[in-house]
Design brief:
single chain; about 400 residues; alpha+beta; Phosphorylase Kinase, domain 1; Transferase(Phosphotransferase), domain 1; 6-stranded antiparallel beta sheet; 3-stranded antiparallel beta sheet; 10 helices; 13 strands; globular; cAMP-dependent protein kinase activity
Length: about 400
């Protein structure tokens, strides 16, 4: 193994992992503390059900052959801990008494995600509840505050919206959009693979979400089907911003889900938004092939395969899609699509996307290839697995609050 292919192991610090999902079959995010102060937490389609009405399609020019941006050659290791994003105040706007907890949608090390209904407007929301003590013990304070701060300023049709936050003496709460259609991951597992046009539709909407995040200097860092929800009409919503970070130049912390991590992240080299375009290529590959290109049961072996970047795109994947995948899953970031001189435009103008009218797609006034089955209307949760419920001590403000000062914006 050459030095460029080595998996770098860090001896100082500790390893941590966390999972918060609605399916035990999902991939678990992994994390590695580089320094103590910098840590990352860890239905099937057929020809009859597939809507071939491609109202989001038209002609686009071929991909431009442009020179590349060598910005990643910089040795800067700037890690911004104080965001420059405008701050939206929602502290004190809600309390647990404003909601009725209906059921659990997902569980994890830090807490739960509940389906709740507002006692005031009757609307349904997803409420993330994290235990302060576990956040502090796992050294996730900064990332929790970063997630709240980032979500407070995001407004995009393909990104879940955060409506507010609050806390009691034991927990912090985030009130989010409730997206009834479930995860793209579940649909992909039922379908095995997506037809080319279906994969293209979902990829195009994800691209617009990433383009928006990058315009705000936000690196998402955990793109995967598990973090893509489907609305009742079949559009995507990017969710779970626990890994997201505002990065103006570069950062270097190892975090993400093993199958989707870029090689420069594994090598603990300075990296930028280009890591999201690597993950975007992995997503397209998985939708079209049914598995990830570097799959293994061992995370360490996955890292080794990613570091070598040796993979094949099956022959049944159409040529334009193969070309795009190879341009995205590119070890050398100076040649990776999305990191060239024209940035995201090089991806949007690629032949695989030549039919997409991006303005029509962003408007959402188009037919989607699949609409989730929502039999009970608004508030239906049939697309999510059932979990054992517990007695929740939410709203307890009688016990001492040892950690509230660490979450001043909640």
């Amino acid at each position: 193994m050459s030095s460029s292919d080595q998996v770098h192991m860090v001896h100082q610090g500790a390893v941590s992992a966390e999972q918060l999902s609605s399916s035990e079959s999902q991939r678990v995010p992994s994390s590695l503390i580089i320094q103590d102060q910098y840590q990352c937490k860890q239905a099937s389609f057929s020809e009859t059900t597939l809507n071939q009405n491609s109202s989001f399609l038209s002609n686009h020019p071929d991909m431009a052959k442009d020179s590349f941006n060598k910005g990643m050659n910089s040795t800067s290791q700037n890690v911004t801990r104080h965001t420059n994003l405008p701050y939206k105040q929602t502290k004190g706007k809600y309390s647990i008494n404003d909601f009725k907890v209906i059921r659990t949608l997902g569980t994890g090390f830090f807490g739960r995600v509940h389906l709740v209904r507002s006692n005031h407007n009757g609307r349904y929301y997803a409420m993330k509840v994290f235990q302060k003590r576990k956040i502090v013990k796992s050294k996730q304070i900064e990332h929790t505050n970063d997630e709240r701060r980032i979500l407070s300023v995001l407004q995009h049709p393909f990104i879940t919206r955060m409506w507010g936050t609050f806390q009691d003496t034991k927990s912090i709460f985030m009130v989010m959009d409730y997206i009834e259609g479930g995860e793209l991951f579940s649909l992909l597992r039922k379908s095995k693979v997506f037809p080319n046009q279906v994969a293209k539709f979902y990829a195009a909407e994800v691209l617009l979400a990433l383009e928006y995040l990058h315009s705000k200097n936000i690196v998402y860092r955990d793109l995967k089907p598990e973090n893509i929800l489907l609305t009742r009409s079949g559009h995507i919503k990017l969710t779970d911003f626990g890994f997201a970070k505002e990065v103006e130049t570069a950062t270097y912390t190892l975090c993400g889900t093993p199958d989707y991590i870029a090689p420069e992240v594994i090598a603990v080299q300075p990296y930028n938004k280009a890591v999201d375009w690597w993950s975007f290529g992995i997503l397209i590959y998985e939708m079209l092939v049914g598995t990830t290109p570097f799959y293994d049961t061992s995370p360490i072996k996955i890292y080794e395969k990613i570091s070598k970047c040796e993979y094949e795109v099956p022959h049944f994947v159409e040529p334009d899609a193969r070309s795009l995948i190879r341009g995205l899953i590119m070890k050398d970031v100076t040649f990776r699509l999305g990191n060239l001189r024209h940035g995201v435009e090089d991806i949007k103008n690629h032949p695989w996307f030549q039919e997409v009218v991006w303005e029509n797609l962003l408007s959402g006034n188009i037919e989607t290839p699949y609409e989730p089955n929502i039999p009970n209307g608004v508030g239906d949760s049939s697309q999510f697995e059932l979990y054992p419920e517990e007695d929740y001590d939410y709203g307890n403000n009688s016990s001492p609050d040892d950690f509230g000062y660490l979450f001043p914006e909640f």
